[in-house]
Amino acid sequence: MIRHNKECVAMLLAGGQGSRLEVLTKSVAKPAVHFGGKYRIIDFPLSNCVNSGIDTVGVLTQYRPLELIKYVGSGRPWSLDRNDGGVHILPPYAKANSSQWYSGTANAICQNIEFIDEFDPEYVLILSGDHIYKMDYSKIIAQHKKTQADVTVSVINVSLEEASRFGIVIPDETGRIVDFEEKPKKPKSTCASMGIYLFSWKVLRDALLEDDANPDSGNDFGHDLLPMLLRQGKKMYTYEFEGYWKDVGTLDSLWDANMDLINPKVPMQLDDSNFRIFMKTPALPPQYIAEEAVLTNSFVCEGCEVYGQVDFSVLSAGCRIGKGAVVRDSVLMPDVTVEDGAVVQYAIVGAGTTIKKGAVVGSRPEDAEDISKWGLAVLGYDLTVGEGAFVPAKSVIAEDIPEGVKTYD
Amino acid sequence: MTNRMALVFANIDNSTMDLFTSARSIGALPFGGRYRLIDFTLSNLVNGSVYQVGVPVREKYQALLDHIGVAREWDLDRRTDGLTFLPPFVKDYDSAYDTKLKALRGSMMYLHKSAAYEYIFLCEPDVICNIDMDDLLAQHIDSGADITYLTVNRAAANYHGTFALALAADESGRVTSIADDEGDPAYNHLGMGISVMKRSLLLDLLAVAEQSNSIRFFDTGLINRYTTSLDIRVIDYTGYVSKIRNLYDYFKASMDMFNPEIRKDVFFRSGHVYTKTHADVPVLYGLNSDIKESLIADGSSVEGSVKHSIIFRRVKIGRDTKLESCIIMQDSVIEEGAELRYCIADKNVRVTAGAKIIGTPEKPRLLTKGQTYSH
Questions:
Q1: Which of A93, A104, A398, B261 could form a disulfide with A219 if both were Cys (CB 3.0 to 4.6 A apart)?
Q2: DSSP run (H or E) holding A306
Q3: What structural domains does chain B harbor?
C-alpha cells in the first residue's frame, strides 16, 4: 500500500469539560457548544486547518463526546472526509493490560502516538477547542522551518492588566523563549500563550515518552512538557499572531464573542470567501420575517420565524420569536422558542428551550439597582420557562421553571 | 436498498419563462430563497425511501449538474444505488429528446440494469409539494391498480400553476381517458407529473411503443391506449401543490411562501426539503434595516427596507434601499438608495445606487443574470 507522509498533523484537544460554561457544558463538551448562530466552537480550528492546507486532524475526546462525535461525523462539512488523512475522533481506549483516561493534555497525545506515527509527519500542531479566531497555520509552520525551531508557541500581545490572566511566554529579542510564567501577578511580558503549539514530531515524540515515564508529571503541555523542553535547552520560539482571538471559556466571554460578530468595529470577518469557516448546515427554509416584526442589528439564521422585536441579538437556526415578544442583547442557540409577549434581555438561551408567553428572562444593566449583582441570565438546554415566570439577571438555570414562578427570594 | 426507483424527467421543459430558463433547465430554477425546483421532487423521493434515481437531461443542464453534484445533500451518493444522470444516449441521439417517451427509450439500459427494483416512480421536476411517496406507493399497492397517477381534483381550491395533463376518472378513481389539459371539465383530475407502476409493466409498455411509430407521447399516447385493459387510477392529493410553467405561476408560488400554513406544508409536511448547502454566514441585519413579511436566505446582509420579498443567498442590500414585492436571486447587489418594486432579479444582478426600477404585479420587471441596472 502506498502511504504518503503528511508534513503536518493537527491534534485538537477537545476532551475538557469547560466547566466555567456551567449549564451549557453540562451535557456537551465545550468544542460542541453553539456559537455565532450557525457555528460550533470546533468549526473554527477545523476550518483553520483546512484553510491552512492541513488535511489530517485528530480530535481527542473524553468528556461527554456524543454531541461532538455526531457533529464531526465523517468530516464532510470541512472537506475532511479524505481517502488519505481526514478527521478522526480519538477517544481514550482500553489496552490489553490496563486502561487509562486522558490524564492531561500531553497524556492525551501520548496515548495516540500510533495515530500520528501512521502519517509519519514532520510537524505536529496542538490545538484546543476553546477559542474563536481565524488563523493560517501555514505561517507558523513557515516560521518554524525558518528558525529551525523544535517548538513554536503561538502568542498574542495582550495588555499588561490582562496578562495576569494568561499563561505568559517570555521571549528574548530574537523571539526565542527564555521562560514561562503561569498567570503571573507581575508579568514580565505581555506575550500570552494561545494554547497553539507547533512541534517537530521527533522532539515531541521523545518528550511525550519522557514525560509519561515521570511519575511526578501532571502530563500537561503548559505545566510540564514545555518547561521540561525549555530546561533541556530545546529551540523554542514564539510566533506572534495578530488578529481577532477570543477565549470563550466563560459565560461572559461567550456572550461577548457572539456580540462581536454583529459589531462592525470588531475585526472578525466571517464573510470572507478566501477563508471561510465551514459548518454543518441544517435543511431548513429561509428565515421568515413577519409584517409586525422589528428586526435590527442582529445575526439571524435559516429556519427562524420572527414576529416580534429583535435587536442586538444572535438567533441560531430554527428559533421562533412570537408576536409582541422582545429579544435584546441576547444569544439564542438553535430551536429556541420565545412565545408571544415574552421578554429576553442580556441572556444566553440553550438549544431547544421554550420561554412561554409573558415570561421575562434577564434584565438590562441600566435597570439594575445594584450593578454588582447584575449579570447575564443563562438558560440550559431543552428547558421550559413557564408562562409569566421571571428569571432575574445573573441566574444560571438548569431546570424547568413553572408558570408564574420567580426564581429568586 | 428498497423495492422502488424513480426517473425524474429533467429533460422535459415546457416552461415559458425564457429569461430564467434560457440558461438552465426548469428543474434548476431557483425558488424560495435557497432552493431549485428539483429539490422538492428529489427530497420527496429520498424521504419516501427511493434511493435509485435516474435523471434524464437534455440540454443546458450545467446548472443542474452543478447543483446536484454527486447528490450528497439528498443522501443519494450511495454504494448500491444512488442518483444517475442520463444524458441523451449518443448512439441514437435525438436532438429533441424532449418528451418523457424519448427519455424512457434512451434510458432502457438503465431500466434493465435496475432489475432489483420492483416499482418505479415517474416524476417531473417542476412541481412544488411535500408528499409522502411511501404512502403513495402503499396506496397504489393496496388498490391493486396497474398504474397510479397522483392528481389534484379540478374542483379543489388548493392547487396552483399550470398542469399539462388532464385525466378523466370515474367515481372510484378509475381512469377512462388521458389528454393534454384544455380545460375540459369532463377531465376532472389534473396530473401533478407523478405516477407509479411496476418496472416490469413499464418495460412491457415501452416494448409496444418500440413497435409503433405513431406513439409520440407517453401519458397521452402510450398509456391512454390501455385505459380499458389496465387498471389505471388517480389519487387526489389534498396538500399544497404548485406546478410551475410560466412567470405568473412562479411569482404566485413564491408569494405563497409568506403564508405560514403553506410554508409548513411545503417544508415540513412529510420530511425535510434538502438542497445544496453552502457555508454561508447568518444574515446580518443592520442598524436601519426594516424588514416586513419577507423570506431571507443566509449569507445576505440587509441595511435597507425590504417588504413582501424573497431574498436569496448572499444578496447585499445597501442603506436607504426600498424593496417591495421583489424576488432577488443569489449573489445580487442592491446598492444604496435603490428602489425596486415588483422586480425579479436573476443571479448576480447589480442595481446601482439610487436606481429606481418599478414593475407591476401583472408584469414584474425581469432583471437578467449578471447584468447591471441603473433604471
A1: A104
A2: strand A305-306
A3: 4-268 (3.90.550.10), 284-373 (2.160.10.10)
In B, minimum Cα distance to A264 occurs at B286
A280's grid cell: 454543518
Prediction pTM value:
0.93
In this complex, the residue of A271, A281, A288 whose CB is nearest that of residue B295 is A288
Selected for mutation to probe chain B from A81, A259, A284, A287 (highest B CB count within 10 Å) is A287
Cβ(B189)–Cβ(B154) below 8 Å: yes
Tell me what ipTM this predicted complex has.
0.90
| B255 in A contact zone (CB under 8 Å) | no
Hey, is the C-beta of B1 within 8 angstroms of any chain A C-beta?
Answer: no
Report how far residue B133's alpha carbon sits from residue B124's, in angstroms, rounded to the nearest whole number: 14
Query: Consecutive 10-residue runs of chain A (409 residues): their mean pLDDT?
Result: 83 91 93 96 98 97 94 95 94 89 95 96 95 97 98 96 91 96 90 96 98 95 95 97 94 96 90 93 95 97 97 98 98 98 98 97 93 95 96 95 76
pLDDT of residue A194: 96
pLDDT tens, residue by residue, B163-189: 999 999 999 999 999 999 999 999 999
**Chosen from A265, A279, A296 to mutate, greatest number of chain B CBs within 10 A:** A296
CA dist., res. B105 & res. A318, Å (int): 45
Which of the listed ranges A267-271, B45-49, B59-63 does the model predict with the highest average pLDDT? Answer: B45-49
| Contact residues, chain A to chain B, C-beta under 8 Å | 36-38, 76-77, 262, 270-271, 276-279, 281, 283-291, 293, 295-302, 305, 314-315
pLDDT of the residue at B20: 77
Question: Closest chain A residue to B35 measured between Cα atoms?
Answer: A285
What local confidence, expressed as pLDDT, does residue A52 receive?
Answer: 97
Closest CA to B306 of B268, B345, B278: B345
**Would you call B260 an interface residue with chain A, using a CB distance cutoff of 8 Å?**
yes
Instruction: Please answer yes or no on whether A36 and B260 come within 8 Å at the CB atom.
Output: no
How is the beta sheet containing B159-161 ordered, strand by strand? B127-128, B241-243, B159-161
Query: Does the beta-carbon distance from A287 to B295 stay under 8 Å?
Result: yes
Closest CA to B219 of B88, B55, B54, B101: B101
